[in-house]
Specification:
The complex is a heterodimer of chains A (553) and B (198). By secondary structure, chain A is of the alpha/beta class. In chain A, 39% of the residues lie in helices and 15% in strands. Among the domains of chain A are: 248 residues, Rossmann fold, CATH 3.40.50.11540; 96 residues, no CATH class. In chain B, helix 2 crosses helix 3. Classes of the chains: A alpha/beta (553), B mainly alpha (198).
Chain lengths: 553, 198
C-alpha cells in the first residue's frame, strides 16, 4: 500500500503471543449449563430488568433496558428459563458483585421473533438505522463498551469527515478481531456501509496492524467485492498501543486529538471491527448483540483458540472448551496483559466487553524499588505525558497538580509501568489519583448543593419572619385606627366640650371604661315592697358585708 | 540664601502634600468604587467546609463557623464531617499548622451516612422537617415523612427532635460507580515521599 502512515510518540514493541490462539480455526462455543447475563454491560446509566424470575425467554428477547440516552439494552443469549435475578461475581477490579440474570438454557436455542418493525429493508433512513442499532444493544466492542447509538448520534451533530475502523488489535495474546476479519470480512463491510449511510464521511480508513497479514488480505478482498468509494484498508506498523483511539487517528491521518478534546470534534469517528459486524447483524437479521468472539489463550490453558461465545457464558465453560487448565494455580485475566482485569474466579461470565480470557501460569510481582529518574516512562508514553511527574504528585496526594499535568489524558495503556526498571505500578497510582479527583468533584458538587439549599432555607425563613412581622404590624395599625375612629365618634357624641379642645386619650379611655361599668351595674332586684322582717335581714347582711370589707382593708 | 532655602522647603512640602492629597483621593475613590462586599476569606473557608450544616463545631452552620475562623475566634479542627482532609485544606488556605480533629466535637466517619425514616412509625409531627437545615425531608402534618436521600447531608439534626425515635442513620450504599482504585501499597518503606519535584 502506498498510503502514508504517520507516527505517534512512544509506544512499545511487546512479545506478541498471537500465534498460540491462531492454531485452530474459529469455533462455536457450546451452551453452558448456566448462562449469567449481567443486567448492565455498558458505560452509562444502569439498566432495569423487564423480565421476572421464572419467565421463559428466547434468544434475542429483551431482558433489561434503560430510557437514558447513554445506555444499551441487554438480551437473552439463548432460549430457556430465568432461574433468578441475583448478585453474582463479575469482571470488575473491585471484586464486587452485580445484578445478573441466571438463565438455564433449554437446549433448543429458539430465536425470539422481534416485534414487527415497519422499516422497509431497502429504504432505511439514518434515524431507522440508529434506532435499530440502539435496540440491538450494540456497544463499542473494542473494550470501552460505550453505547454505539449514543456515540453516532453525538458524532452526527459534529459532522464526520473521516470514519476510522479499528482493526489494530495491538495488545498481546488477543486475536478475536483478527479471526473476525479473516472469517467475517463481508459482514464487517456491511456494517461499514451502514455507518457510511449514517455519517456520510468523506473517507473511510480501516487500520490493521501489519502482524495480521491474513486479516489484511481478507479485508482487502472483501473491500474489492463491495466497491465502496473512498474506502481503504491500511496496514500500520505493529507497535503497542496503536489500537488506542487517539494513536490510531494519529497513525492514519496525522491529526492529533488535543487534550480534553473528543475525536469527533475534529471530524473523526472510530469504530471497532467487531462493532461493525454486530451492526450488520442487527440490521440485516434483526438480531441483537447476544454473542461475540472470545479468545481463550495463554500459557495456562491446553488448547488456545477463538470461540463464538454466547454472552453470559461462564469463563470456566470456555476454559473447558479450550482443553482445561495446564497449570495448577492459573491466574485469570479478562482482556490483555497490559490493560486486562484480574479475575478472582472462573465463575465470572463473559460480557460484551470480554475480548479475551488470558490464562497465565503466574503473575509477575517483582519488588518495587525507588524511582531512579531514568525517564524511560516519558520516552514510551504514547500521550506525551510526564509519567514520573504524575507519579510524584499522585503519591504525595497533590491531586490538583496531577490534573494540571493532564492526568486525565492518560489512557492507562501501561507502557510506563512496563518499562519502569524499578517496577513501580505507575498506572495504579494514576487510577487512584483519578478516583480521588472524581470523588472530590462529587463532594464539591454535593456540598455546593447543600450550601445553596441551606441558604435558600435561611432566606425563606427570614422572609417568612418578615412577612409575619409585617402582618402583625398591619394588624396593630388597623386596631389603632379602629380605636381612634371609635373614639372620635364617641367624642362627637358624648363630649359637649367645645370643638377643637384636646382630650387626653387615656383619660377619655378611663372614662369610657367607667361609664361602661356604670352602665353594666345592675340595680338590686326585689327591693321594693319589702316586709319589715326582710328589710331587717337585708340591713343585717349589709352590715356584715361592710364589716368584712372594713376588716379586709 | 535663607529666603531661598525656606522657599525650597515650602515648595517641597507643597509638592509632597499635593502628591499625598491626590493619592489620597485616588485611594478614596478606589475604596468606594472597588468595595468588596463581605469578607472574601469567609467565602473561601466556607467553600472548603463540607456544608453538612450539622452544627457540631458549635456554630449555627458552616458559614458562621467560617466567619469565626476568619475572625480568628475558632480553631480549624472543629469539623468532624470534614475530618482530616478539611483540616488540611483549611491549614493550607490559611497557612497555619495542621491540627488533630478536636474529639470534643465528634468523630469523623469515613463512610458517609444518610438519614432514613422508618415510615411505619412516623406520626407526621413535622419536627424533623423543621430541624433539617437543607430541606431534605418531605411531608406534612399528620402525614408520613420521608427523606430525600440525594439531598441529605447526614448532619443528624433530625434525630433529637423525633418524638418516636423513628429516624436512623445508615451508611450510603456504595455502588460500582462509586468504587475507586485503591492506592498502591508502597512496598519499600525507605522510599522518599518528600521529593515532589522530579
Amino acid at each position: 500500500m502506498a498510503d502514508s502512515v504517520y507516527k505517534f510518540h512512544g509506544g512499545l514493541h511487546l512479545d506478541e503471543h498471537k500465534a498460540e490462539s491462531l492454531t485452530q480455526p474459529l469455533q462455536v462455543a457450546s451452551l453452558a449449563d448456566e448462562i449469567i447475563i449481567r443486567v448492565s454491560q455498558h458505560i452509562g446509566e444502569p439498566n432495569t430488568p423487564v423480565i421476572e424470575t421464572g419467565d421463559t425467554v428466547k434468544r434475542g428477547q429483551l431482558l433489561a433496558e434503560s430510557s437514558a440516552f447513554v445506555s444499551a439494552p441487554v438480551h437473552a443469549s439463548t432460549s430457556g428459563t430465568i432461574k433468578a435475578i441475583e448478585e453474582r461475581a463479575i469482571a470488575h477490579a473491585s471484586g464486587q458483585k452485580a445484578e445478573c440474570f441466571i438463565l438455564i438454557p433449554d437446549g433448543k436455542d429458539e430465536v425470539f421473533e422481534q416485534p414487527e418493525n415497519s422499516y422497509q429493508k431497502n429504504d432505511l433512513q439514518k434515524s431507522d438505522l440508529l434506532a435499530m442499532i440502539r435496540l440491538a444493544g450494540i456497544v463499542g466492542l473494542g473494550g470501552a463498551v460505550f453505547p454505539t447509538a449514543a456515540k453516532l448520534t453525538t458524532a452526527i451533530k459534529h459532522g464526520i469527515k473521516t470514519l476510522i475502523i479499528n482493526g489494530a488489535e495491538c495488545e498481546p495474546y488477543i486475536t478475536c478481531d483478527d479471526v473476525l476479519m479473516q472469517n467475517n470480512a463481508a459482514d464487517i463491510f456491511k456494517g461499514i456501509t451502514y455507518l457510511q449511510t449514517i455519517l456520510q464521511p468523506e473517507q473511510t480508513i480501516i487500520g490493521i496492524e501489519d502482524n495480521k497479514p491474513a486479516a489484511i488480505q481478507a479485508m482487502q478482498q472483501a473491500l474489492a467485492d463491495t466497491s465502496l468509494a473512498n474506502t481503504r484498508v491500511t496496514s500500520i506498523p505493529t507497535l503497542y498501543p496503536s489500537g488506542g483511539e487517539k494513536q490510531l487517528i494519529k497513525l492514519l491521518t496525522g491529526l492529533e486529538v488535543h487534550s480534553s478534546q473528543l475525536s469527533f470534534e475534529i471530524g473523526i469517528l472510530c469504530q471497532n471491527v467487531g462493532t461493525c459486524a454486530a451492526i450488520a447483524k442487527a440490521i440485516d437479521e434483526c438480531q441483537p448483540l447476544t454473542s461475540r468472539i472470545v479468545t481463550v489463550t495463554g500459557p495456562g490453558v491446553n488448547n488456545p483458540g477463538n470461540w463464538l461465545t454466547p454472552l453470559g457464558t461462564p469463563v470456566s465453560h470456555l476454559i473447558q472448551l479450550a482443553g482445561g487448565y495446564k497449570v495448577k494455580q492459573p491466574k485469570l485475566i479478562m482482556g490483555g496483559p497490559m490493560m486486562g482485569l484480574t479475575l478472582e474466579s472462573d465463575q465470572i461470565p463473559v460480557v460484551k466487553a470480554t475480548n479475551t480470557i488470558l490464562v497465565l501460569d503466574h503473575l509477575d510481582q517483582p519488588e518495587v524499588n525507588e524511582c531512579i529518574r531514568c525517564g524511560s516512562c516519558t520516552e514510551v508514553c504514547p500521550v506525551q505525558l510526564l509519567p514520573q511527574q504524575l507519579y510524584w504528585y499522585s503519591k504525595t496526594h497533590q491531586f490538583d497538580l496531577t490534573e494540571s499535568y493532564h492526568l486525565f489524558d492518560c489512557i492507562e495503556c501501561g507502557c510506563c509501568s512496563a518499562v519502569c526498571p524499578s517496577h513501580i505500578p505507575l498506572v495504579q497510582y494514576y487510577r487512584h489519583a483519578k478516583g480521588e479527583i472524581w470523588q472530590q468533584r462529587k463532594n464539591t458538587y454535593k456540598s455546593d448543593r447543600a450550601r445553596k439549599r441551606h441558604e435558600f432555607r435561611e432566606a425563606r425563613i427570614a422572609r417568612q419572619k418578615q412577612l409575619d412581622e409585617e402582618r402583625r404590624q398591619q394588624k396593630r395599625e388597623a386596631l389603632a385606627k379602629k380605636k381612634a375612629a371609635e373614639q372620635a365618634t364617641k367624642a362627637t357624641q358624648s363630649d359637649n366640650s367645645p370643638a377643637g379642645q384636646t382630650v387626653d386619650a387615656v383619660q377619655a379611655a378611663l372614662e369610657r371604661v367607667k361609664a361602661r361599668k356604670k352602665a353594666q351595674q345592675v340595680d338590686p332586684k326585689n327591693t321594693s315592697n319589702l316586709t319589715d322582717e326582710q328589710q331587717r335581714q337585708i340591713d343585717e347582711a349589709n352590715a356584715r358585708r361592710n364589716k368584712t370589707t372594713a376588716d379586709d382593708a | 540664601m535663607g529666603h531661598d532655602t525656606s522657599m525650597l522647603v515650602l515648595i517641597a512640602v507643597l509638592t509632597l502634600s499635593f502628591i499625598a492629597g491626590s493619592f489620597g483621593l485616588i485611594l478614596g475613590y478606589a475604596a468606594i468604587r472597588f468595595k468588596v462586599e463581605g469578607n472574601p476569606i469567609v467565602d473561601q473557608i466556607d467553600a472548603v467546609l463540607p456544608q453538612t450544616q450539622c452544627g457540631q463545631c458549635g456554630f449555627a452552620g458552616c458559614r458562621p463557623y467560617a466567619e469565626a475562623i476568619a475572625k480568628g475566634e475558632a480553631p480549624i479542627n472543629q469539623c468532624p464531617p470534614g475530618g482530616e482532609s478539611t483540616i488540611v485544606a483549611l491549614a493550607d488556605l490559611l497557612d497555619t499548622e495542621v491540627l488533630e480533629l478536636n474529639a470534643e466535637h465528634g468523630e469523623h466517619s469515613e463512610v458517609p451516612l444518610v438519614a432514613v425514616i422508618d415510615e411505619m412509625n412516623c406520626i407526621g409531627c413535622t419536627l424533623c422537617i423543621q430541624a433539617c437545615p437543607v430541606d431534605a425531608i418531605l411531608g406534612s402534618a399528620k402525614h408520613m415523612h420521608t427523606i430525600i436521600e440525594s439531598e441529605c447531608t447526614g448532619c443528624e439534626l433530625c434525630l433529637p427532635p423525633c418524638p418516636v425515635d423513628c429516624i436512623d442513620m445508615i451508611p450510603i450504599k456504595q455502588t460500582l460507580a462509586d468504587w475507586k482504585w485503591p492506592e498502591p501499597k508502597t512496598l519499600s518503606p525507605n522510599e522518599s515521599t518528600e521529593m515532589t519535584h522530579g
